[in-house]
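Bug #77: duplicate submission created two jobs. Keeping one. Sequence:
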Amino acid sequence: MLHDLHSRLTYPHVVSTLALFVARGGSACAAAANSIGSRELKPNAVRVGDLAANSVDSSKVVNESLRSGDFAAGQLPAGKSGSDGATGRTGPVGPVGPAGPIGAKTFMGFVLAAVLIHQGML
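Kept job's structure:
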């Protein structure tokens, strides 16, 4: 078996295999050398326009790092209403308004008073 492998192992085979490994390893090294890590990024260097659509999802956001200003109107549910505050001070008394029209109860009171006066009871 070793003899069969040795008979097929020629100089062109060795060189081509070696070239394949160098080419594959060289591109991997070049890709690693040209990549930028988070340490090399300055603060606020990546803007919204630099991100692909839907590239940031909830798994990539730190819990409790977003504030209400990070959401559009209507995206967050309304919170519970707070308790009622303390009653404020009473304001100043306003001016007296004009007299209103005579109603049925007031008119009947005048009639009753007139009858009682007429009969001498009042």
